[in-house]
Design a protein that fits this description.
The complex is a heterotrimer of chains A (about 300), B (about 70) and C (about 260). Chain A is built from 10 helices and 13 strands. Chain A has about 300 residues and is an alpha/beta fold. Chain A has 2 domains: about 220 residues, 3-Layer(aba) Sandwich (Rossmann fold); about 80 residues, Alpha-Beta Plaits. In chain A, the strands form 3 sheets. Chain A has a 6-stranded mixed β-sheet, sandwiched between helices. The longest helix of chain A has 15 residues. Chain B has one domain. Chain B starts with 6 loop residues before the first helix and ends in a 5-residue tail after the last helix. Chain C has about 260 residues and is mainly alpha-helical. Chain C is built from 12 helices and no strands. The chains are: A alpha/beta (about 300), B mainly alpha (about 70), C mainly alpha (about 260). Chains A and C meet through α1, β5 and α2 of A and α1 and α6 of C.
């Protein structure tokens, strides 16, 4: 693909006896916003650290468009925000940005100019001359995003940028990310599907060091649209025993059986509906609720993450 | 005391001690209460009463890292 | 080289914000000045206290200028060194344990540049403090007690500064592995062990950098001993420490994943 900014092929990382990343492949398109989605411990942070050049991969390949195979030459074109960004509390916000910009090779005048620009972008102009030690969590996170942007990178990688924030801080950062969309390629990790949906057009779902699913938002919505029947029965031994026989029924594609409820994914809704009704009246099942609907990405995510 | 102290010799020592103590007190005043180990008034006493050692103790162990 | 100055500038400002440029030199200057003044007044004080019989007090005289400088150096070796080590103990350990390195190293992968800048900033503080304290001691000794020879003073001062330098440099690799106070304790422990060993076995360990403080003192009192081997060993140890610190920090720059 000519429009890709970053290719990752079969990337893996072992640390001692554990392998947090077990061979993953994906690409980032220029200008896209991709969410790296997955539960805690899925290997998201390790992946981002490898992409940022902080950890060296045990296997596989990271290739940046136009660059060599290593992240080194590319560090200047990447902005990275760790999960728990730590600043020098004795510096002011402005000083930290200038310091960061200079480390990425900007001249003094450029560093100053860009720092002021990104302070405006993240809405910290007022606080620029205050010591970072006095910043709130949301302000620190916005300063973290500002430092990831200060050297005008082509790609910014943000590790769980909102998970440690209170609702107000979270809103500030989510709005900021939505505004940045399109201006810069974004890869951010989160364990909250809703956050991913709000700002991103693509997602990569990681579970246990592997990619469980990836694609554009609409593609995946379509893919996981499947008719489902939801069923709730009276709390009684006979009903509950009957529920457990459902996965064996011919019309059921897959089933999620709890003690009193069942969610049945089916191929043909009408056929399944009839079959289920017949089955229930034959077995004289006392149901409380039956519902027909479609499954969603949320269900898929819960299943992938929970399973 | 039956010998003369030459104040021209001694005053720089007293002045230096004063500089140290004043620097320590300024630093203490400008540090947020949460960033100081222990109560501030205790450090004021230590710096004033403790001479050289008091000021050193404050600079070395009085502040938490931000 | 540009990166070096960016890091160096940051270190200098950081030290300034915690008043290190004032208090560490002030402590050295005090130590340096107090020693000759104390020695100068000691016979008077003893006589005035009346606890010694006058005949005994008369025997106590002010020592020669070279000996006063030598005793000032021994003050620097205890309180002075302790202050230097404690003020610099978090220079690497603090960055590592607080996690500030993660964002820094995602920009510039040159840990060695960062480490060299940290070393240079620490040495600037060390040299400034020692030079002030030493100059103060020399000035007061010269004014109160008697003349000194400039060449000897300069030589002893330089040798002594190298002794301080290698001990403080040990904080870099130790800080890349241990927390600040542990790094400080270990560097002082290593220094004490090497210095003691060198004084116990001077002929077996002629090259030991632990001998440098003793050599400096000996130079003042007119004895000369070969300086080249221990000084070279100290310089090599400094280079090795800085490189090792970079390698260690490069290997584990990240806080544990939560």
């Amino acid at each position: 693909m000519t429009n890709s900014l970053l290719y990752i092929r079969n990337l893996s990382k072992s640390i001692g006896s554990i392998t947090p990343v077990k061979g993953i492949s994906f690409e980032l398109e220029r200008g896209s916003c991709t969410a790296l989605l997955g539960p805690n411990g899925a290997g998201k942070t390790t992946t981002l650290r490898m992409l940022a050049g902080l950890l060296s991969p045990s296997g596989g390949e990271i290739q940046y468009e136009g660059g060599g195979k290593s992240g080194r030459d590319w560090q200047k074109r990447i902005g990275y925000l760790p999960q728990y960004p730590k600043f020098y509390g004795w510096m002011t916000g402005m000083e930290y940005l200038i310091f960061s910009a200079k480390l990425s090779g900007l001249s003094g005048a450029q560093a100053r100019k860009r720092s002021l620009e990104v302070l405006d972008t993240v809405g910290l102009r007022e606080a620029a001359k205050r010591r970072i030690a006095g910043y709130s969590g949301g302000m620190k996170q916005r300063l973290g995003i500002a430092q990831s942007l200060v050297h005008e990178p082509s790609l910014i990688m943000l590790d769980e940028p909102v998970s440690a924030l209170d609702p107000i801080g979270r809103r500030e950062v989510m709005d900021l990310l939505s505004r940045l969309r399109g201006e810069v390629t974004i890869l951010f990790s989160t364990h909250v599907l809703h956050d991913a949906e709000e700002v991103c057009d693509r997602m990569v779902v990681m579970v246990d060091g592997r990619i469980a699913e990836q694609g554009s938002w609409t593609e995946l919505r379509e893919k996981y649209r499947q008719p489902v029947l939801l069923l709730e029965v009276e709390p009684a031994a006979r009903e509950e025993a009957w529920l457990r026989t459902l996965p064996g029924m011919p019309f059921v594609e897959s089933a999620d059986i709890r003690s009193r409820t069942a969610a049945l994914a089916v191929r043909d809704l009408d056929q399944a509906r009839n079959a289920l009704m017949r089955e229930m009246s034959d077995s004289r099942i006392r149901f409380q609720r039956i519902e027909a609907g479609t499954s969603s990405l949320e269900d898929m995510f819960m299943k992938v993450v929970g399973g | 005391m039956n010998f003369e102290i030459n104040w021209g010799i001694v005053w720089p020592i007293l002045a230096l001690q004063a500089v140290l103590a004043v620097t320590a007190l300024i630093s203490l005043a400008r540090t947020a209460t949460e960033a100081v180990r222990g109560p501030k008034w205790m450090w004021v006493l230590v710096i004033i009463a403790g001479n050289l050692a008091g000021s050193i103790a404050y600079f070395v162990g009085g502040r938490r890292d931000a | 080289m540009r990166l070096f100055w960016v890091f160096f500038h940051k270190e200098v400002i950081e030290a300034a914000r915690s008043y290190k440029w004032i208090w560490v030199p002030a402590v050295f200057l005090l130590l340096g000045v107090m020693q000759p003044v104390m020695m100068y007044y000691l016979p008077d004080i003893l006589r005035a206290s009346g606890e010694l019989p006058p005949e005994a007090a008369a025997l106590i005289t002010t020592p020669p200028p070279e000996e006063i400088i030598a005793s000032t150096l021994s003050q620097f070796s205890t309180i002075g060194l302790l202050v230097l080590v404690l003020s610099a103990m978090n220079i690497v350990a603090g960055e590592r344990t607080s996690g500030t390195t993660e964002m820094i190293l995602s920009r510039s992968s040159s840990v060695l540049t960062m480490m060299t800048a940290k070393w240079a900033a620490t040495m600037s503080l060390l040299l400034l403090s020692f030079a002030l304290g030493y100059a103060g001691a020399v000035y007061y000794t010269y004014q109160l007690i008697g003349p000194l020879e400039w060449g000897t003073l300069a030589g002893a001062g330089a040798v002594y500064a190298v002794w301080l330098a290698w001990i403080v440099t040990l904080l870099l690799p130790l800080g890349a592995v241990f927390r600040g106070p542990a790094a400080a304790f270990l560097s002082l422990g290593i220094a004490a062990a090497l210095t003691l060993l060198a004084s116990l076995l001077p002929s077996q360990l002629p090259w030991s950098p632990g001998r440098l403080s003793a050599i400096a003192t000996a130079m003042l009192t007119g004895e000369s001993s070969p300086t080249f081997a221990p000084a070279l060993a100290a310089v090599l140890l400094i280079i090795l420490s800085t490189v090792a610190a970079s390698v260690l920090l490069r290997r584990r720059p990240l806080s544990a994943q939560a």
